[in-house]
């Protein structure tokens, strides 16, 4: 489940400048919003539990779990807004090489004015879903927050969001280990989300969901031939042969 909430780079740099002339590095912004994410989940702000994160959690680099990738800690200014979601403020370790890499990139993005985003991506454990709509998460314990370059929810602000279930954090199946690539939870959730799309009576909404899905595959670098073939079969009801012929027409 991925939700991207772009980091507020300008606010982060301003906050850091106010703290001892740049001697401290802070990143801040909304790390989750109650929007539908690109994997079909909705996190209710009222269900966010951040006690563990604030007291014992870490800010890591790109969801990597080794100690060297722990690049910061949350401050006491983290809170849950019942309308906007989770606001995160974190202090980065200036001597950590990966924190330096993130900070340099954020500064360059601001300086050059380029349209790229960094964001927060949360790691946590889902304790409860809505029994009537399993897309809705009613209870989520946040354990850590990652800073990442891979966006997922466009409404979340340094300020990015990804939820990962306890057993694994890697989202590329080719890089997953210990059977994570075929986890029952992941497959069952995917089927639930897919079945929901087929209940849509509004064709414009149906098309929009699939358009965003294809956009996400592109941005995440997952638009492989196989993934696109399957997506076309599901979206348009094509046979595999017809989907492959359609793709072949673009290769000529």
In terms of topology, how is this protein built?
Elements: E1 5-6, H1 9-18, E2 25-30, E3 42-43, E4 48-49, H2 51-56, E5 59-61, E6 70-74, E7 79-81, E8 85-92, H3 97-112, E9 119-129, E10 136-148, H4 184-197, H5 203-219, H6 225-236, H7 240-251
Parallel strand pairs: 3-10, 4-10, 5-10
Antiparallel strand pairs: 1-9, 2-8, 5-6, 6-8, 7-8, 9-10
Helix pairs in contact: 5-6, 6-7
Mean pLDDT: 75
Rg, please?
A: 19 Å
How many distinct helices? 7
Helix percentage: 25-40%
Give the number of domains: 2
Overall shape: globular
How many beta-strand elements?
Answer: 10
Structural class call reads alpha/beta
Strand content: 15-25%
Order of helices and strands: EHEEEHEEEEHEEHHHH
Sheet with the most strands, sense and barrel status: 10 strands, mixed
Low-confidence stretches: 157-182
**Terminus-to-terminus distance:** 36 Å
Structure summary:
The protein has helices at residues 9-18, 51-56, 97-112, 184-197, 203-219, 225-236, 240-251; strands spanning 5-6, 25-30, 42-43, 48-49, 59-61, 70-74, 79-81, 85-92, 119-129, 136-148. With 252 residues, it is of the alpha/beta class.
Give an overview of the whole structure.
- The chain is globular and about 60 Å long.
- The chain has 7 helices and 10 strands.
- It starts with a strand and ends with a helix.
- It has helices at 9-18, 51-56, 97-112, 184-197, 203-219, 225-236, 240-251; strands spanning 5-6, 25-30, 42-43, 48-49, 59-61, 70-74, 79-81, 85-92, 119-129, 136-148.
- The chain folds into 2 domains: 5-166, no CATH class; 181-251, no CATH class.
- It is an alpha/beta fold.
- Strand 9 (119-129) and strand 10 (136-148) form a beta hairpin.
- Residues 157-182 have low confidence and may be disordered.
- Strands 1, 2, 3, 4, 5, 6, 7, 8, 9 and 10 form a 10-stranded mixed β-sheet that branches.
